[in-house]
Amino acid sequence: DLHYVAYGSEKESLYLPAIRKLISNDLSEPYSIYVYRYFLYQWGDLCFMALTPDNELVGVIVCKLEPHRGGPMRGYIAMLATRAENRGRGIATRLVRMAVDKMIEKDADEIALETEVDNIPSLRIYENLGFLRTKRLHRYYLNGNTAFRLVLYLKPGIPYKPTYPPEF
């Protein structure tokens, strides 16, 4: 009964407030409107929404794709949220798969994200899709919680591809 669509700038007035509300209910970080616009304006085609037949937002994933320190083309899952009463229906998994497929289509080498170490449902979704825990980030979030960085390697040899520090 749900349909899934890519975000587009023409959808901003209709869906950006709903996206902000859904994400602020689920995630521990307080994001400003500018953070949402940073992702949605540049990579709207990598951001997907799950909508009811009445076009009510019940799930969203916000992503980007760019070179990582002069090395691999890295996709990044910045935000994923599903309305509480709609959880357990595979919505988040489908949104992640759609984002991963689109990043593969755009020649991503790897996809990374962070999630809180105690967010077992999130860890289960990502690990079932092949993401690996690569780093533990102590007190990563503003609320003091620790995170895992998870990475999905899409091509052979990517973990060994050199990266370079940013030039100052």
Automatic annotation (TrEMBL):
CDD domains, A to Z: NAT_SF
Record carries keyword Acyltransferase: yes
Keywords: Acyltransferase, Transferase
Pfam families: Acetyltransf_1
Phylogenetic classification of the source organism: Eukaryota, Fungi, Dikarya, Ascomycota, Pezizomycotina
Species this chain originates from: Baudoinia panamericana (strain UAMH 10762)
Name of the protein: N-acetyltransferase domain-containing protein
Family designation: Belongs to the acetyltransferase family. MAK3 subfamily.
PROSITE patterns membership: GNAT (PS51186)
GO molecular function annotations of the record: inositol hexakisphosphate binding; protein-N-terminal amino-acid acetyltransferase activity
Cited InterPro entries: Acyl_CoA_acyltransferase, GNAT_dom, NAA30-like
GO CC terms in record: NatC complex
Chain ranges of the N-acetyltransferase domain: 5-155
Recorded superkingdom: Eukaryota
GO biological process, alphabetically ordered: regulation of protein localization
